[in-house]
């Protein structure tokens, strides 16, 4: 079979496998935590798959405490999810058959071909060679350690960035089916983009036509599709195992389900549990999501407590879900560096394998300073605001689409909303304030981002959510004031206003759609390495030039330390210490 056809076939099979397996886990989790809904079957597939995705990452994070994430661990885990899906499908076969029969044949055919086309394009684009700098610096290295050994004590002593305890790597490493496949980097983010598209489309189709402009999830779907299309065309995370793209996607999905929760007059059990799973998982993928996720959870619990069918049991169970995910994540952080929230020293324990606290502080300062002004020493950047002028110059000249234009749209719509507020009646003002909730999470998330690590790649999702949340806010306020035709025209105008820059970029860069691999999976960059030995006999591979190891043999690090030693001189997986 031609390698090009074979690579497409394998990618599509893996997309389908992940969908079925994750849906099985999602359904099982929902039935476990919702005894009174055991007979309920009318869940969105995307809801089940996102639930299963969070569950899968959690399972892999636990398994890796004891075993390497290789073929013999991953295949049984995915197979079990597939078996669960088959059981649930057979049990509710008549229900799903009725859904299929209720959809016109022509629409099923169109949807099938559209799904096939988008899936194939995403798969081929993700096969391009990885170009993300941090992937060469430590992403591939982290994944190789996950595939080769159980969690390694003190791995931060070898390479400080290997202690960036990002749960995304457990997911990406699992898709390598090590040592059989080794192309998980092409599947990881491309599958999540496909799932995000499917989520938006499914929400749009499930609403009856008369409800489309009452339930603004339909509008949110339309406003968000250009964002996903833009990331598909421009993000180097498509072909690289970068947690940044996944983090941005999850920000969008969290916001989406949060809006659905706000639109539900009574407590939506499934939204509460899924948001608990997603927010906790988002924090473990990228610590920069902390305040955004915490604000979502606070508002979720606060609003739930005000509703008539508030459930203390549901509140406690959601809290337990968040605690369990974060507890496992912190345990992993402690094992890898001695600091559960590395590169923060909060909770630091001075164990035998712990990274010295001075080195953790150094890493934290580099993270904060590099996001403000790259290539400058942190001692020059931190502790003053001299970095702000060069930072804002870079933002305004190179980040127009991701930062400047969304901020401009948000400020413009905010001014209009304020005018609406002061020209409205008292009752309308109360409604105005109640809907303000929708803007709070992305605003708080961006404030936290700005005062910690203000690199735009960490918060693209939040910047795109700003104008969308402000537009939704305006539509909530004018929904009862405008006639249907005028309201639809208003939606179209807001859509064009929010998405103008994205649409213009795609129109002006149509050639980007043709940037796909026509030879299957392309190779990861190779670098020359040298073999070095520490004073304590540890063999280390070091890049001859630069600081990127890419897919070099492990243990590889650009930062050679002669004091490095293995905890057990005969076993690399025993971990590292420099004490």
Automatic annotation (TrEMBL):
InterPro entries: DUF8201 (IPR058514), LIC_10190-like (IPR058065). Residues 11-463 form the DUF8201 domain. Keywords: Membrane, Transmembrane, Transmembrane helix. It comes from Candidatus Electronema aureum. The keyword Transmembrane helix applies. This is DUF8201 domain-containing protein. The keyword Acyltransferase does not apply. The chain crosses the membrane at residues 6-33, 45-67, 73-93, 105-124, 186-203, 215-233, 274-303, 315-335, 403-422, 428-451, 458-478, 484-507.
